[in-house]
Amino acid sequence: MDVPKNTKYRKLFRVRLTENKLSERGSQLAFGEFGLKAMTPFIIYKKQIEAMRQTIMRAIKRQGQLIIRVFAKYQTTRKPAEVRMGGGKGAVDHDLWCDKVYPGKIMFELKGVSREAAEHAFQLAKYKTGIECKFIDRSGKGEL
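Request: output the structure for the sequence above.
Response:
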């Protein structure tokens, strides 16, 4: 569930971020009452998404509902250690599926929990990526 079932091409170009770009889609709360918004561009890997999901669910004690708005849809390749230059592109590394996240993108949403519980859960999840994130809610007020 955390990676696509199939892809159009076997190997993709390297995943790169566009300079000075803001998130066009997914910048508003759509499903929940509280959200975690990215403030800097970065590449998030499927292990980070899963670590954040586990941290949030543990912090809210499995109350309420968590909506994940990022999906690891880009694959990356890796060559084995101590291999000489040349020989083509490396094999797809199934641990390194990733997604691009631009400033303004809502990564996670919560509903059915109190504001304090959501703020605490997102504060803990923020440490799993090491980037700047902001807590937002439907009323418009709320900084992490």
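The chain has two helices and seven strands.
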